Amino acid sequence: MLPPAVSSPVKQPSLTELFVGFVGVSLSGFGGALPWARRMIVERKQWMTAEEFNEAFSLAQFLPGPNVVNFSVVFGTRFGGAAGAAVALAGLMGPPVLIVTAIAIFYSYYGDLAALGRILAGISAAAVGLLIATVAKMAWPLFRTGSIIAPVLAAIGFVAIALLHVPLPWVIVVLAPVSVAIAWMRP
Q1: pLDDT, tens digit, for every residue of 149-171?
Q2: What is this structure's pTM?
Q3: How far is CA 101 from CA 27, 98, 108, 112, in A?
Q4: I want to staple 71 with a disulfide (CB 3.0 to 4.6 A). Which of 60, 65, 167, 176 is the partner?
Q5: Domain spans, the chain
């Protein structure tokens, strides 16, 4: 569990604000909720700085399971304990479960239509664009610190996974302790 943020620019969100915020993320995040979660938390509500978001998301990514779901629990816990985790998770998961159920029923009747395939291809392209934009926004704080260490570790992770096809758990087992050791040694 992350300690409460001392440097967060605004007040702590209430449980209602957490729920409504994550409902908004879930309803906006077709194809991926991470870009919308970051936009809501860092840019609109300013509940976390970009660096705090990256740290919390790093923890969520390290845990097993879907990253943004893990993040909602980590974030909710940070600002509201167990109740915060529950409302953030309910806000994130509730609307998509209802929507996907309705879409599944619709798809069972109309899934063979060619137009539907073209629509889904367009939605996929938009989702990839959102993901690339979010990765760029999350990487920017690493590069603007002036330290070369974080970008080098990020590049090593990228090369290992994307180009060398090293399994993610092995990359985490190696890079996580290295990252922690480097952070521990830095003043």
Answers
A1: 888 898 999 999 999 999 999 99
A2: 0.59
A3: 14, 5, 11, 18
A4: 60
A5: 15-144, 145-187
